[in-house]
């Protein structure tokens, strides 16, 4: 934003194609400048010109122009702004006075369309308007960040509380498993002691015992390997079945595609054909509009003007007679195509037919556009379906390859399973040869020992899993203290920031109320004693959450004829009272936010709701704050203003 500067020299404002202005150049002076005249004399458009040069984007381009420009010159500085119509929007360029016109748009450019005045008229919440120029964005952003962090902390602490509740059950499971492990280990120790106690002292018996132990060790290893093969085989079969299900779903989805779908190229040809027809219709509509506009203008001027020179008068013999004939009241006009007199109704009838034809062409063009949109959507749908079909076919090829590989693997595992089962059968058969009266007890002991050793491995694995989960939870719970400390810190920071925002909001509201009271005392309205803003809390919903937000509500204090005061709201005010209230609010904003330090101009318009004397008092009050005050008034409303002001009557 440019640094503020005082206006000490005359001010030149030039404009082309702004609002209703074709071209103008006006000289203003420091102090108060009064634009006077009747309505529809481009006073508001001239104010928009100044706004544009100062940096506002709320100026309008002339309706029949594609480009416009404004220039503002004072104190050896010149500010230029260009406006251009592009794709239905007005684009601004150039070097204005302000880089950021937000504050000036709100409280210095006080036209009828001013946002602050309009907000009061419709009874809107004024908080955003009052706080918008105050730099609380950084505080609000920090509050939002801390609120998000607090929500994350709350969720994490809740998760930790749930994890903490799991610990007793997990610890009980661990204790149960350790008891079972201890019991099983003791049983294994007993069985090993029993084996050692068997009387096989002779060398042959020792060798036989080694054979028995070796046979059962081999049998145990074989059973362990069998379990591994069975697990791998089950896993492969489940994967194979899942792939088959996916294949069936994809094949069903593929069958739903229509092999006789419409050609995308054919659709493109139809779209191009319709677009060509639409372009032709655009040309026709444009030409019809030009013809209609031209004829309407001609009809408004009663055809061509006919100038009679001296030779014409001589030919008629009596110029006065012919003039009298032309001045006789008639519904005829001079045709601008053939020069003859034609009944106005006939021309208007022709114009109406042209308008009807243009409307039909517009309707036809609209229908064509709908068809183009439908066909374009159909093209996109076909492309999406083709892409989806290709993805399905690619995935099916991958699935078929995967199924083939898994089928081979399943076959290999089934062979391994049969071989392992056969091997176990052989080992069991070998073990049975030892089952005689001499070694029967030894064999039974070995069998029980093998079973218990496998069971012990499973118990220890389960205990290790439970222990790992307990350690994981305990590790996470250790951070709870730090999280709780951080949450307290975040809560304290949030309280401090919110208190800071509360103080800023309260100070802003107090300043507005003070200045509105001062301005209202100048106007001296009998039916409005006071205008003031109440700051209150309200609960609103943001998504799924309910949050507390501050609202600024405008109140009006009135006095009845019997001297009783009561509060009212904007909804109950008359139209003129709303206009006055909106203006008072906007003017207070100018003073609260020291707008004169940002931009040396104030623009006032649409003051019809205030009488001439009050306007004069208001202008005199603000004259001391602003270097250049430009006010647009009707002649009768300007009568009470000082003659020392600069008056502009032509724009």
From TrEMBL:
Q: What keywords is this UniProt entry annotated with? A: Coiled coil
PANTHER family with a match to the protein in the record: ABC TRANSPORTER ABCH.3
**Name of the protein:** Kinetochore-Ndc80 subunit SPC25
Q: What is stated as this protein's family in its record?
A: Belongs to the Sph1/Sph2 family.
Which residue intervals define the domain Rad50/SbcC-type AAA in the entry? 16-227
Coiled coil ranges:
136-291, 351-507
Q: Name one GO molecular function term.
A: ATP hydrolysis activity
Coiled coil listed as a keyword: yes
InterPro entries listed in its UniProt record: P-loop_NTPase, Rad50/SbcC_AAA
The alphabetized list of GO BP terms reads: double-strand break repair
Q: What is the lineage of its organism?
A: Archaea, Methanobacteriati, Methanobacteriota, Stenosarchaea group, Halobacteria
In its UniProt entry, the species of origin is given as Natrinema gari JCM 14663
Membrane keyword on record: no
């Amino acid at each position: 934003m440019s640094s503020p500067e005082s206006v000490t020299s005359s001010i030149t404002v030039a404009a082309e194609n702004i609002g209703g202005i074709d071209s103008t150049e006006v000289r203003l002076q420091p102090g108060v400048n009064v634009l006077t005249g009747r309505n529809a004399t481009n006073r508001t458009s001239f104010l928009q010109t100044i706004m544009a040069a100062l940096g506002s984007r709320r100026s309008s381009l002339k309706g029949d122009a594609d480009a416009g420009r404004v220039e503002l010159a004072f104190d050896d500085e010149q500010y230029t702004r260009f406006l251009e119509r592009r794709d239905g929007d007005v684009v601004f360029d150039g070097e204005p006075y302000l880089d950021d016109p937000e504050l000036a748009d709100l409280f210095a450019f006080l036209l009828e369309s001013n946002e602050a005045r309009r907000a009061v008229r419709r009874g809107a919440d004024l908080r955003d308007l009052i706080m918008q120029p105050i730099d609380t964005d950084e505080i609000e952003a920090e509050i939002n960040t801390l609120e998000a962090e607090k929500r994350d902390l709350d969720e994490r602490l809740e998760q930790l509380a749930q994890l903490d509740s799991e610990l007793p059950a997990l610890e009980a499971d661990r204790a149960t498993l350790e008891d079972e492990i201890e019991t099983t280990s003791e049983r294994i120790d007993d069985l090993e002691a029993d084996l050692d106690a068997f009387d096989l002292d002779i060398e042959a018996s020792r060798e036989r015992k080694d054979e028995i132990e070796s046979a059962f060790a081999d049998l145990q290893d074989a059973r362990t390997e069998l379990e591994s093969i069975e697990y791998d085989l089950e896993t492969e079969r489940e994967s194979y079945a899942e792939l088959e299900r996916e294949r069936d779903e994809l094949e069903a989805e593929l069958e739903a595609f229509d092999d006789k779908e419409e050609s995308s190229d054919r659709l493109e040809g139809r779209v191009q054909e319709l677009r060509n027809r639409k372009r032709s219709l655009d040309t026709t509509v444009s030409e019809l509009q030009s013809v209609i506009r031209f004829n309407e203008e001609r009809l408004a001027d009663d055809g061509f003007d006919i100038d009679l020179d001296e030779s014409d008068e001589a030919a008629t013999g009596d110029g006065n007679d012919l003039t009298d004939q032309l001045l006789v009241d008639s519904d005829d006009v001079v045709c601008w195509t053939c020069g003859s007199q034609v009944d106005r109704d006939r021309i208007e009838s022709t114009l109406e037919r042209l308008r009807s034809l243009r409307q039909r062409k517009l309707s036809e063009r609209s229908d064509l556009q709908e068809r183009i949109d439908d066909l374009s959507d159909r093209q996109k749908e076909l492309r999406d379906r083709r892409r989806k079909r290709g993805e399905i076919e690619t995935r099916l090829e991958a699935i078929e390859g995967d199924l083939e590989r898994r089928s081979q693997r399943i076959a290999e595992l089934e062979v391994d399973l049969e071989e392992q089962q056969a091997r176990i059968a052989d080992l069991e058969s070998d073990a049975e040869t030892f089952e005689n009266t001499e070694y029967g007890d030894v064999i039974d002991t070995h069998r029980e020992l093998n079973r218990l050793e496998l069971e012990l491995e499973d118990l220890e694995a389960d205990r290790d899993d439970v222990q790992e989960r307990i350690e994981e939870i305990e590790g996470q719970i250790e951070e709870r203290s730090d999280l709780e400390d951080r949450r307290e810190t975040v809560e304290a920071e949030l309280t401090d920031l919110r208190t800071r925002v509360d103080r800023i909001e309260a100070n802003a509201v107090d300043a507005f109320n003070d200045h509105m009271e001062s301005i209202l005392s100048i106007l001296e309205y009998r039916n409005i004693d006071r205008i003031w803003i109440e700051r209150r809390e309200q609960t609103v919903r943001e998504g799924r959450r309910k949050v507390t937000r501050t609202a600024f509500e405008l109140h009006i204090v009135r006095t009845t004829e019997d001297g009783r005061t009561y509060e009212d709201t904007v909804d109950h005010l008359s139209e003129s009272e709303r206009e006055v209230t909106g203006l008072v609010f906007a003017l207070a904003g100018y003073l609260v936010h020291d707008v004169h330090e940002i931009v040396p101009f104030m623009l006032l318009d649409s003051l019809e709701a205030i009488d001439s004397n009050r306007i004069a008092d208001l202008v005199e009050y603000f004259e001391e704050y602003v270097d250049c005050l430009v006010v647009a008034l009707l002649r009768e409303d300007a009568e009470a203003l000082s003659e020392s002001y600069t008056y502009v009557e032509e724009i």
